[in-house]
Amino acid sequence: MTRISSSSNGGSNNTGQPNSLAAAGGTYGLDIDMPAAWSITTGKMTKVLAVLDDGVDYTNPDVYLNIRLNQGEIPASFKANLFDTDSDGLITFRDLNTAANAAFVSDLNANGYIDGGDF
Fold first, then answer.
1. Letter string b/e over residues 7-40, b meaning 16 or more CB atoms within 10 A of that residue's CB
2. Cα–Cα distance for residue pair 27/18, rounded to 1 Å
3. What is the pLDDT of residues 76-103, one digit of tens each?
4. For the whole model, what pTM was predicted?
5. pLDDT digits over 20-60, tens only?
6. Is 115 exposed, middle or buried (CB count within 10 Å of its CB: 0-12, 13-18, 19+)?
7. Closest CA to 104 of 82, 73, 85
8. CA dihedral 41, 46, 47, 51 (to 10 degrees)
């Protein structure tokens, strides 16, 4: 499990840390208790992660392959060349990070894999 944290994640785990809304700090415990939830489970491939307001670190190695792509926003001419390598009916970051699709995608942010920063 990778702990996802930053100084601005008060809604996820509010420890009273300073944030963009309150330089003196937030209200301890006024949050969604993400660390407690992650201590129960870190998820399964059948579960969908919802991002609540704080955004998502699409470069996180535990997260980037599981980010859903809006299939309607993939240009049809580009999508026609891609391979659905796991046969789930969707083009996903898992598909884009396989050798079968390497000729059609570029690691623009040079971090070693295809993620949201490459679009």
1. eebbebbbeebebeeeeeebeeeebeebeeebee
2. 10
3. 988 999 999 999 999 999 999 999 999 9
4. 0.56
5. 666 666 676 666 777 777 777 776 767 666 666 666 777 77
6. buried
7. 82
8. 120
DSSP notation for 26-58: --TT-S--HHHHHHH----TTS-PPP-SS---T
Q: Are 17 and 7 in contact (CB under 8 A)?
A: yes
Q: 116: which residues sit within 8 A by CB, 6+ positions away?
A: 58, 64, 67
Which token pair is 6? 């930053």
26 near 10, Cβ under 8 Å? yes
